[in-house]
Write a structure and sequence with these properties.
Layout lengths: L34 H15 L6 E5 L14 E4 L5 H11 L4 E7 H7 L1 H10 L3 E7 L34 H8 L3 E6 L3 H13 L3 E7 L11 H7 E3 L9 H9 L4 E8 L5 H6 L5 H15 L1
Parallel strand pairs: 1-2, 1-3, 3-4, 4-6, 5-6, 7-8
Antiparallel strand pairs: 5-8
Helix pairs in contact: 1-6, 3-4, 5-8
Amino acid sequence: MSSRTVTRRRPQRRQRSPDVYKSDEKPTWCPGCGDFGVLNSVYRALRTQGIAPHQVVCVSGIGCSSRIPYFINAYGFHGIHGRTMPIATGVRLARPDLKTLVFGGDGDAFAIGAGHFVHAMRRNVDLCYVVMDNATYGLTKGQTSPTSGTGFVTLSTPHGNPEQALNPMLLALASGATFVARGFSADPQKLADLIVEGMNHKGFAFIDVYSPCVVFNKVNTFKYYKEQTETLPSDHDPSSLPDAMQLAISQDPLYLGLFHQREATTFEDHMNADPPSQSERHEQLEQLFDRYS
């Protein structure tokens, strides 16, 4: 009797139409807004993943970009200004079965939400945070934001912005994010690829996206980013933190792609781990007493 080797086929992801992920709400952004490109990239990423709408939750804060959960056919939570990280962390702990996507803008993420942003990264919460960075407060009619350049003239800085712009990439790298990337809304396919990678990454995935505001920011325009951006060098090693930081410092060109990625224990893993036994806790306390006595 002859034997026969049986080859098991890996299950194929179901290919869904992009329309499956579109809600009945129509986007309300200004014509030409970069956020349209980001939304398109999210649709593409979800389709690539083959994930069902009921398996995704989208969390956002306040701002033009934070309207995005309304336009995605999935669970959504439109939070308050700067509080996306506490909400998303709660979602991850309560419903680890859901893929958590978080959205915000440069004001929501790097101003009022900066403290929560930093601590979520150092905890390595397993979520994908997409920030639509237009270097201005678009929803409140164009004030200076944390990523606005020095000299930027707005209603809040009529004599020019006296502050230097915050570098989100350096902040993320220094704060311990285990996945740090940057995209451009005018290249939705490459951005979709980054979002897919971020969703598949186990840990905190941060994707900063140049998403121009065509109404209130006449400096950081689509033309400007098309001329200033460049794909990361092909020989870049994302595992090297020093190299990633050096590339993040660059202003000419502004690099796009995956800057850094590493493996680390997630916040959820720590929370779900078995607590130490009484004898282990006693031993740990004795070690502390010996160290500081």
